[in-house]
Structure formats: structure tokens, C-alpha cells
Design brief:
The chain has helices at about 5-15, 15-20, 20-40, 95-100, 125-140, 160-170, and strands spanning about 40-45, 55-60, 75-80, 105-110, 150-155. By secondary structure, the protein is of the alpha/beta class.
Length: about 170
């Protein structure tokens, strides 16, 4: 088999080229994300690392109120966004938060730097995977402050986020 070229790779992995009504999906996601942000019940852009891309959003469980003091101990859903490692943002997937929070989960959506980065600051998929390791470690250490139970964390993802979730599952965690 011949080595795949960039045109073949785009045809296989770039959903903007493969899904005819891709823009309609993005619009629906954007509308839902805007409604989720407007509804409250969250903390946005909490830093988990040192770079501008290393932030996360937390949607509070059940009543949407930020826990005061003692942890509520809700299960934690960490959702890793997709975008071919090159596009989209955690905010584009905010619509995920309220649906699961209404069912009693504390929802966390981390962001990551996008490939290929810049000439001065290149970004690779291994770089993104390590950012998600840092995000998950931060979540484990701090989620009780936001009503979550660090012993009940589930990591899921969409597209590239699913790949990153699988990579997190393969980490050697202490």
C-alpha cells in the first residue's frame, strides 16, 4: 500500500469535507453552547496549567449552584472536545454541561492548544495529550472544591477528544 498523502488523510479524517451539512451541526452546537453559558451554574476558564490554552470549565451538579465549602461528592464527567486536534474549543461544547449536570454530574470541559501551533510555539498531538494529563491531574486534586468526587471520574470525548480519552486511560497513574 502506498503511503497516504495529505489529500487522502484529509478525505479520511476531516469531517468538514466528509459531512455534507457540517455547518448545520456546528450552528446547532453553537446555539446550545451559548444557551448553556447564559444559563449560569458554572465556572469558566479556570487555569489548570501555565499556558493560555490550559483552562477548563466546570458545570455544577444538579441545581447549578456553586458548592459552598464542603464537597457534595457528585460523580465527575470530564468531556474532551474534538476538532481534528486543529480546531474548535471547549466553549463550542458547553452544551454538554447542563444536560449531565441536571442528572447530578459535575461536568468538566478542558481546553488544549491546537495543532500545529505557531513557528515560535509548535503544538503536537503528544503535547496535547500531556496537557490533558495535567488537566486530569488538576481535576483529581481540585474537583472536591467544586462539588465533585475525585474517586468517581469518567473521561469521555468526541472525535479527537475520544482519542485523547483513550490516551489518558493508557497513562500509568499513581
Amino acid at each position: 500500500m502506498a503511503k497516504p498523502n495529505s489529500q487522502w488523510l484529509d478525505g479520511m479524517y476531516n469531517n468538514r469535507l466528509r459531512v455534507a451539512d457540517f455547518d448545520a451541526h456546528l450552528k446547532r452546537w453553537n446555539d446550545g453552547a451559548q444557551a448553556a453559558i447564559a444559563s449560569g451554574g458554572h465556572r469558566l476558564n479556570l487555569p489548570y496549567g501555565d499556558t493560555a490554552a490550559e483552562t477548563l470549565d466546570i458545570f455544577f451538579a444538579a441545581d447549578g449552584a456553586e458548592p459552598a465549602g464542603a464537597a457534595v461528592g457528585a460523580p465527575v464527567l470530564v468531556f474532551l472536545h474534538g476538532g481534528y486536534w486543529r480546531s474548535l474549543d471547549k466553549a463550542d461544547f458547553s452544551f454538554i454541561g447542563p444536560a449531565f449536570a441536571a442528572e447530578g454530574a459535575c461536568v468538566v470541559i478542558p481546553n488544549y492548544a491546537l495543532c500545529p501551533g505557531t513557528p515560535d510555539c509548535p503544538v503536537t498531538i503528544p503535547d496535547i495529550a500531556l496537557q490533558m494529563v495535567r488537566a486530569l491531574a488538576w481535576i483529581y486534586r481540585h474537583i472536591a472544591e467544586y462539588g465533585g468526587d475525585a474517586r468517581r471520574i469518567t473521561v469521555v470525548g468526541h472525535s479527537a477528544g475520544g482519542h485523547l480519552a483513550g490516551m489518558l486511560a493508557a497513562c500509568h497513574w499513581r
